[in-house]
Amino acid sequence: MVAASLARRVGLWGTPLQALAGFEIPLSLLASHSLPPSSSHQTNVLPTTTSHTSSPPQRLQSQLDVLSEADDGVIKAMDQWSELVRAHLPLCEASAAASAMVHGALLLDQQLDQLAEDDDDDDDGMDGTGLIQHTSELPALGERKEWCYARIAELAQQNDVGDPAASRSDALAALVQNLHSNRSLCFKPFEWLYTGVTPLRLAAVLQGGTGAPLLMGVAAAGIADAKGIPALVLPFRETGQGVSQPRTGAAARPARAHLPTIPSSQWWYVSSVDGGDAGGAAPVCIDVTNGKRVKPEEVQRQSAEDSVLGVWRGLVRLSMEAYQRRGESDAVARWTHLLLSLDADAPEWEAIMPGFTR
Q1: CB-based burial label for 92 (10 Å; 0-12, 13-18, 19+)
Q2: Average per-residue pLDDT in the chain?
Q3: Strand (E) or helix (H) holding 315
Q4: Any residues with CB less than 8 A from the CB of 154 and at least 6 apart, and which?
């Protein structure tokens, strides 16, 4: 795969696309390289090394060279994310965010099978966790999308929160608390070594009630959306002294002060949309793993569109981290390539291209 054709596949770097050095380059990537959107540059030089003195077009071309090393399966996965971008972004309104997140989670489920080396390396399960033991316990892959939407609608109907128009923030909080109390969404700690990637599958979360907090957040946002309550899924706020500790029953995640720029994929919160309440009440944020409200300062506020992009990237990053924990290096390489294609500013670029500056 040559860089010219690959560049057209990097959908999450931004739209619309613009010609640069003969390629179609996303405008947001140009901005990250300090190039004005209207600039037009021509170069046929492919640098052999990248340093902090490299020009923006050289760094950009070097990034495309790295992505061109991905195998055909990853290239196909990049295509699928690009199609998702074209279908959902820019958002027509903030209330469309939850639907876009659910679509991303369903695509991830598909790609976990698509990028797997064999049928038995990712879902070995563990008794007593409350997790779905194997994908054979889930609806067939071809039926899974339709089943997930039906299950979301069923859970929305089962959990009455009154009139959401009165206060969407209160309605969202009541909904998540109900889902937790009736164990429709009730987090149980797990270990990737034993569960495989089952906790990353939306169908497993909707069927078993537990899984990775990010997927639980997407499920809660989807259920809220089905009840007419706009919701976002937001990460907890990173700090320069490591990461803030989540308020959940799970084991506290150790601080990583030595890697402050690496985002966490572990803990996410469900939030009402800014301006969702007629009375102007501040958005509410809920930890979907325990149904409790969290302080606003613990949450990284984002626009609806940035929230969607953050969740999509978080899904892929979490998949990469799961395979890292399992020690499956080939899978880690595939998911790392896919993550880099979704985020031109991912901190992992620095490890691959020393001296890379964003």
Answers
A1: exposed
A2: 75
A3: helix 304-326
A4: none
